[in-house]
Amino acid sequence: MPDSPYWNPHTETLPRDRLEALQARKLRDLLEWTFGHAPWQAQRLRDAGVEPGSVRTLQDLRSIPFLTRADWMQAQEADPPYGPVLARAPESAIRYHTTSGTSGSRPLAVLDGPKDWEWIAEMWCYAFWGFGVRPADTVFFAFGYGTFVGFWGAQYACEKLGALVLPGGNMTTEARVRMLAECGATVVCCTPTYALRMAQEARRLGIDLPGSAVQRLILSGEPAGSIPATKALIEDQWGAKAGDTAGMTELGTVMMFECSHQPGGAHIIEDHYIEEVIDPATGAPAGSDELGERVVTSFGRGFIPVLRYRTGDLVCRVPADRCTCGRGFDIYDGGIRGRVDDMKVIRGTNVYPGAVEAIVRRVADVEEFQVRLYTADGIRDEIEVQVELADDGDAVLAELGRELAEAHEGLRFGVRRAEAGSLPRFELKAKRLTDEREVWGGTGERKAM
Ligand SMILES: [Zn+2]
Fold it and tell me: Which end of the chain is more exposed for a tag (fewer CB within 10 A), N or C?
């Protein structure tokens, strides 16, 4: 393959009208397949007044009912282990995967067939190639290789494009850092949180990451891959470029990636998905540049039709020309901004964990942090931020409290220093927010952030 900056030079540079014509054709095929092979989905469509042939254009998409995770889960629980959602017999599947289960709910189980798996790798190829990964690269995966789909597809993408894979599953952080340095990894795949943790470990071991062969990090699994302060910290500590990606188990792969021009967001892979952004309260389309919930329709699934699936991810869509790379794919500015149900209301003020992280990472040199919501004196909501500081000075605590309050309509944050090593560390999805308020049931259930 000549060294084009695009994995798929044809589709990645299509003008908008031709891209939409391609989407409309794929949408018609998807509906035809669903009606022909997926009875449960077909019934849902008919119940909403959609008939074979009635969806012709992208505008007709809105006649299709939303599918929520609760719908899917309910169907699965009523008819375990997969539910009636499959379009093929389970015997023809080749992979079993589950969601990570970090939102407090039980994981969703998903089957993939050979066609899914080929496509899953293809989606990751858009991301790797677009961020500059090439066949000569050596790619280290700091990933557990379990039932959570995570970077599984990314590993196959590397094989597909000809890069060398170093599978760092089932290893301690120390062993991973030593291996990636000793084997000359040029690319590292991990969560943003774990990138920082490995950098800490490297400092402890006296391994000079900026002096190592690593040139790129491919981040996934958490919104922080596009939080500017966190990303800058990762790039600084590794001496490498960090690119954000995001996907989900229900798709088996990524649906957006940051290109090597790093536009402060990620391109949507629009020739394989239709992404809509809606007002989570009303379901009406959100405007361009407006924060809303992602709704995805996937053209690549061969086992389970994914039609207008409500993801719960908060995004802000902007046109493709915000980036200078020449792709025609629109961009989620700031990547995934958080989860719709992440938003907390403290004494009337909205608090987003992602916004708190952006401030904490910018103001203080922290090793780790935790946010705790609790009820004081049985009536008053309080928010506390605990930080493990990298150095000895406490002066930054007051400044952090001031900056957090300033960004939250004067809301008072209790900021306190935690002992070194006392806060939880994370490899997969970081859980840095605990809501212990009695009004929410007092379960102390920890939500992913
Ligand atoms: Zn770009």
Answer: N
- Determine the distance separating the centroid of ligand 1 and the alpha carbon of 6, expressed in angstroms: 10
pTM of the predicted model, to two decimals?
0.86
At 60-73, the pLDDT tens digits run 999 999 999 999 99
Rounded distance from Cα 31 to ligand 1 centre (Å): 31
d(CA 208, CA 216) in angstroms, rounded, equals: 15
Nearest-angstrom CA–CA distance, 385 and 417:
8
Which one is predicted more confidently, 17 or 430? 17
Residue appearing with tokens 């629109």? 330
Between the CA of 245 and the centroid of ligand 1 the distance, in Å, is: 13
Q: In the structure encoding, which two tokens stand for residue 311, read together?
A: 């993801």
pLDDT digits (tens, 9 = 90+) for 306-323: 999 999 999 999 999 999
Cα 24 to Cα 255, 297, 363: the distances in Å are 18, 12, 47
| Cβ pair 212, 177 in contact under 8 A | no
Model confidence band, residue 23 (pLDDT cutoffs 50, 70, 90): very high
Which two structure tokens, joined as six digits, stand for 141?
């995966």
Other CB atoms within a 10 A radius of the CB of residue 245 amount to 29
Centre of ligand 1 to C-alpha 171, Å, is 34
